[in-house]
Each structure stands twice: as structure tokens, then as C-alpha cells.
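hi! just following up on the protien thing from before. the input was this:
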Amino acid sequence: MYVRHLGLQDFRSWPRADLDLAPGRTVFVGPNGFGKTNLVESLWYSSTLGSHRVASDAPLIRAGAERAVVSTIVVNDGRELAVDLEITAGRANKARLNRSPVRTAREVLGVLRAVLFAPEDLALVRGDPGERRRYLDELATTRRPRVGGVRADYDKVLRQRAALLKTAGPARHRGDRSVLDTLDVWDGHLAAHGAQLIAARSSRDFACCMRAVSIACCSHDAASAC
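and the predicted 3d structure came back as:
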């Protein structure tokens, strides 16, 4: 599998970019601030629908633009698949597969499978356990795209449960305890989605993670020796 073409429109610092790529190693060379990391970030976004640098999509849109577009043509066993992602701040992102719209952007997960190691990943060692869980969740999503839907459902339930608890305090002071009547329901949903995420963080995923890190380290050592 490799990316044959990468196209960007108003993504980060790039008003427009069109790159034709080939199988094998590709090295982006340029001065600081040129936008090399932004190219890598766009490929990672096409693979995972997320950034390894920021939690929201808004910073991915170039200043002054209304939307950003990331387009890739992926070759897998001689078959080409085109993925187009339209990123719009504050609205649901749109996706096309082979130029045809799909119902949700998650449907393109798995077309491009990638492994990324970036300076931010040092938080896997130095940071709190949440960073390690996030990394394993991203790895599980790459291997089994349906996990992406589970993660989205878990995050949605977590936000709704937190909002319920936030409003419960003032309501209880007013003597209204009915606001907590649905807490058990949200707890049940949270437990169900959380169990699926825990199962996805299996020993097989961990072994795959270690193998990927080993390959990345070997590639880094080879590049450093050049």
C-alpha cells in the first residue's frame, strides 16, 4: 500500500499543494516553517480522521479560509482508491470515496492504513495513561475501522453524561432530584462502549504497536546514518 497522490487545499499553511508520490521512502526536505509536518499531518488525517497535534479540526483550516480539503489516491495491491475529505469548522466533515459521497466520514477509515511516530508521541512515555490509551485506540481504529465508531459513541455519551452531572448540582439545591433519573441509562451506555474499547486494546494490538515502533526506529537509524 502507498499513497500515489496527495492534494491539499487550504490545509494548515498550504493554500494549495499537489504531490505525486511513489512506492518506497519519501523524505520531505525544507527549512523550518516550510510546512513539512503539515504534509505528514494531512496524510495522518486521511488515515485516522484526526490530527496528532491538535484535538479539534478548526486549526487545520488555513487562516481566512472557510474549509480545508485533503485528497489522497491510495494504491493497494494494484487497486486505486481516491479519498476526499472536506474539513469545515463547527460542522460535520464531508467525505467522498472514488468521487462519490459517503454517508459519514468514518466510512473511509481503513482505505489508508498508516503508522505515525512524531515528537508529540514522547508523551506516550512521559505523559499520563490517557495518552497511552489514546494511542492504542488509534492503533485499534487503524486495524479495525469499526472501532472508530465505538470511540465516537463513547465520547458522545461521556459528554452527555458530564453535561447531566453539571446540571444536577443546581437542580438538587432546588429540591429537584429528577434530573438524575437518567444517570443509570448513561452509565450503562458508557460501560458498554467502554468495554468494547478495552477489548480493542488487546495484547495483539500492543504487539503490533511494538513492532511498528521497532520498524520506525530502524528507519530512523538508517536515515540518520545518511
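The chain has six helices and six strands.
Helices lie at 36-48, 123-126, 129-143, 146-173, 183-200, 203-224.
cheers
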